[in-house]
Amino acid sequence: MIRASAAARWGVPVGVIVALALAQFVLPDYHHTNLARIMVLATFAVGYNIAFGYTGLLSLGHAMFFAAGLYGAGMTAQFLHFPAATAFVVGVTGGLALAFIVGLIALRTTGVSFLIVTLMFAQAVYLTTLYLNNVTRGDEGFVLAPESRQLNLGGMALALSDPDVRYNCALLLFALCFLLSIFLLRSPIGRVLIAVRENEPRTQMLGYNTFGYKLLALTISGTLSGMSGAAYALLFAYVGSTFASTQFSIYPLLWVLLGGAGTLVGPLIGTALMFYLVDFSSGITSSYMIAVGIILVVLIIAFPKGIIGTLRHAWSGARP
Amino acid sequence: MSYGAYFLLAVLEGTVLAFVLAVTALGLSLVFGVMRVVNVAHGEFFMLGGVIAWWVSSTVGGMPLLGFVLALIVAPLFVGGIALVTDWLILRRIDYDPESTIVATIGLLYIIQEATLVLYGPEARSVEAPYYFRVQFPWFGYSGYKLIVAGISAALLLATWLVLTRTSLGLYMRATQYDQETAQAFGISVRRIYATVFALGAALAAIAGVLVVPIQQAHYLMGHDPLLLSFIVVIIGGLGSLGGTLVAAFVIGISDGVISVFFSPTLAKILATLLVALVLVFRPTGLFGAREP
Hints:
The complex is a heterodimer.
Chain A: H1 6-26, H2 29-54, H3 63-79, H4 84-106, H5 111-131, H6 133-136, E1 142-143, E2 150-153, E3 156-159, H7 163-186, H8 188-198, H9 200-205, H10 210-236, E4 238-239, H11 247-259, H12 266-284, H13 289-302, H14 306-316
Antiparallel strand pairs in A: 1-4, 2-3
Chain B: H1 3-35, H2 42-60, H3 64-91, H4 98-120, E1 134-136, E2 141-143, H5 144-166, H6 168-178, H7 180-185, H8 190-212, H9 224-237, H10 242-262, H11 265-282
Antiparallel strand pairs in B: 1-2
Helix pairs in contact in B: 1-5, 1-8, 1-9, 1-10, 2-3, 2-4, 2-8, 2-9, 3-8, 5-6, 5-8, 6-8, 9-10, 9-11, 10-11
């Protein structure tokens, strides 16, 4: 393989992050808040892409990892009065641990069975958040108290409710996870993950422990999802069962499919487009989910490679 | 009321639920068995059946029996038609790829659900039962209509079984399930069988929806629970095994009834979903299914 120059390899990702950093100075308030939300959710999509796009693990249960982060951070901050940074760590650890355990069990299956097993585990987590509704308040959820949303940095207290702090926290989170995922996927480990996606038996035959690699991919994917959930709770102050529902397992799949599975920038593009599409159509009709349905069907029939994948294909022309 | 009477009521409720569940799950199981795809929009076909039953009965007005019989004819035809269009427009184009089909039918789920929300509205509406009579037990009276539901469901299950084992269509279906390529080599149009099975599965779900609306109200989100329960039944019974599906429908239906009466319905569902996940991992052929060769 010919190694591209450092500029070509890191130009696009660094450019994306710089553009996001500059956007906060020009965007009006409404879009400023939206973009912060999109960056947190895109982190979720980046995590999902590691499992689905690169390793070929089609999961329908990633909402449980997001929810582990969301509830882990939200509940410790709200009820145990953990400082925001500690609560965040608890949430991320929750996502990591859950992904590892679910991976140990679910990765014994493949294909459709894997999909259903992850769906069922996520459903069990969702139902548990409803069952414990005297703590979680179920569907209604709870709003985090402002005093639990303080970030203490060397004696300086930053209020996470402040739009600028929130934007830059979201940016930092997204940039870290984005670069981490690129680093991972360009490393030898990433090559093995792609090999597992393309042909698992052959990878196994070459002497790789494919179960171990899949477990690693799912755990990292779940950890990033947990980070996204924990950040969502702390930055946007709301924790509720909706975020654990099947719909929130389908969203990252949709974002990644729309942007382009197995592409680096795809998850961000897909999340941003879908966010504005839902935002726009919910202004017209209350049944905006119909847009989600139609896009899913059209994507899977006509553009299974998503936006970036289709563009890349057109770009490279006849070359394989 | 004594403990025993509560238990009898729970078992009775569970049995009626089990019959409806068996019909719904049979549709899902047929589609999975023959086509090897999972239809996530199956619950929406069930919901459409319920909504059509309401629409027919309110159009006919004042004649619940006529409305009921008409709905039993119109709903499966209409929903079967939607399934045929789906097969032609979507599934055929993605070549029945198992994973793509799941994503596409998730899309279909939202399309049907939201279209119903627009056309029918967010209200839950009840449909009048075709008959009113009570079966009097020493401890409580029981709605006779629920027993009719059980009867019609049993007849449908029997009819499906007869079609599968005694007709040439059933033979083609079983041949396609067993070995698609050999079936094609023997001149069976696999494409047509796929379309037929998909429509048949959808029609079964629609009939279950018609049967259930005099008991529970018609609502655009009513497809969610039957989908989940059918999933559970089909997996516990063994993917693609019809006999297993029936046994599992009764086990799940009755135990769901009992756990829901004595404990919490949410707890019953948590236990059932975890059971399904573990069964799929450790006994992929299901608890009652035959071992695959």
